[in-house]
Amino acid sequence: MRVRLARHAGFCMGVRRAMELALAQAHHGEGPVFTYGPLIHNPQVLELLESKGIRVLGEIPPEGSVTGGTVIIRAHGVPPQDKARLKQAGFSQIVEGTCPRVIRVQAIIARAAKRGADVVIVGDASHPEVVGLLGHAQGRGRVVSRPSEVAGLPQLKDVVVVAQTTQTGENFAAIVQELISRFGPVEVHETICEATHHRQDEVKSLAQEVDGVVVVGGRNSGNTQRLALVAAESNKPVFAVETEEELPRGELAHLDTIGVTAGASTPNWLIKRVLRELGAIRSEREGGGSYILRRVFRFFVRSQLLVALGAAGMTCAASLLQGLVPHPALAATAFFYIYAMHILNHFLDKEAGQYNDPDRAQFLAKHRAFLIGSGIFSAAAALMLCFMMGLWPFVIVSLISLLGILYSVPVVPPSLKRRLGFASLKDIPGSKTVSAAGAWAVVVAVLPAVGFEVWQPAALALAFVYTAVLVFCRCAVFDVLDVQGDLVVGKETIPIMLGEAGTLRLVTWLLAALAVLVLLAPLAGLPAVLCLLLLIPIAGLALMQRVLSRGDVLIGAASEALVDFNFWLAGVLALAWWII
Ligand code: SF4
């Protein structure tokens, strides 16, 4: 079965921001931590927040009845009076989780009310966002949900119209028309959120191109339900599910191509679980060959064989950059070391994996014994090969392996931990990305120089920097994809420090600087054609970064394969240059 994922599926900006604030409070906030009302309309996310100790505050407690604690205001916002009452109740910290787009509507209403205008809010009077907006109107607000309700309004003067952010454009325009007919000219602020528009437009066109649509999201989420209704207008079968367990596998097997979208309150990990389940369904029309190929591809990527072969390829490129003949023992060492490092780390990092990559988590659980066994065998094989190469290769790989083992072990005494803010290397923000880049660069670039005992400082430096930057960017790009799961488990990755956009910008700058360095390398005597060829994998990674920064979502193993393909490519291009 082919699966197509809508570009704007899942958390919108406002919901993601509120989730990030809530999870940050769960890990570092002043407890106890509450959200004022359910943070989002998704039962699985609410369960998760509860498991992190974040409880829902239904009613504001009486004045002075609480001693400390944190309350997070959800993305919909609240009336200003509620914030004041929360403070009076005794909470020490009120965290503003209101979506910036909702804050903008609140500001328009507050300004209009201040000058004495009458405010009409187009929306659903019982929706929390509208309740919050009304609170900013200082008693001068009215809510209208349909054009026919305009006739029931009292006589108004100086009318200002705004919309609940998730309204449809058609309904808003029709109500504005009625208001003009009744009251004459009115001041119109079309405050419908683009995220809603995009999502609905996208599902309309996606539904035309597929045999059926799966909509993932909470049953009580209004925007998820609207997405299902929009998809149903295409007369294609629509399956609205909260989790992968609700997918009707029998019905789906009749279909060849499935489109997937998700409401603004659906987290990535739920979407990924649905994608994994859909990927495992064999469509009745799918040939045996293509199904088997798909499974083999998945095994190849999920088992880390792809990235380990990429390390072997990079070793050939790094050797040739240093004027060394690619040696099978060096390529094999890199293959075994990187395979062992990646496989064993995935088992040590199981909790985040459940959220970040449920497909891989399932694969690892299914083949646990084989993978752990092969990981240990590979680590031993890498050390054995190094030992055969000489003392120094063995010492170097043993040292970086030891550092890898110590990575998660608390080495800082408790007295220093509070001052430094970390107990182990793992707790240092971004350390995983930096240490992976360093370990790759040592095995791929330094080991050939040590093994052959050939020292060309400029060439070695370029091979080291080339490997380290490509691996750093690879990890940073994956960290951006995994940011929701990492936030859940409290991992301090680079996107959590710099933000997703900031990380993608950093990747762009690093790749651009690397490209300039590779272009200038022939001036230091390095082979010009090889340097030009090695620009191609840099461009490949830059392209992936661009795809991600546009918000495109690639499905599971495909995104990983496209990033790791660049390491292969570096090796293949370097070998082709050498042979020709
Ligand atoms: S739908 Fe738009 S306005 Fe509402 S929370 Fe999301 S980004 Fe903000």
Question: Layout of helices and strands, plus pairs?
Answer:
Blueprint: E1 2-5, H1 13-28, E2 33-36, H2 43-51, E3 54-57, E4 70-73, H3 80-89, E5 93-95, H4 100-114, E6 118-122, H5 128-135, E7 141-144, E8 159-163, H6 169-183, E9 187-188, H7 194-209, E10 212-216, H8 222-232, E11 238-241, H9 249-252, E12 257-262, H10 268-280, H11 288-302, H12 305-321, H13 328-348, H14 350-356, H15 358-366, H16 368-389, H17 391-406, H18 414-420, H19 431-452, H20 457-481, H21 483-489, H22 494-498, H23 500-520, H24 528-533, H25 535-549, H26 556-579
Parallel strand pairs: 1-12, 2-3, 2-4, 4-5, 6-7, 6-8, 8-9, 10-11, 10-12
Helix pairs in contact: 4-5, 7-8, 12-13, 12-19, 12-20, 12-26, 13-16, 13-19, 14-15, 14-21, 16-17, 17-19, 19-20, 20-23, 20-25, 23-25, 25-26
Bound molecules: iron/sulfur cluster (SF4).
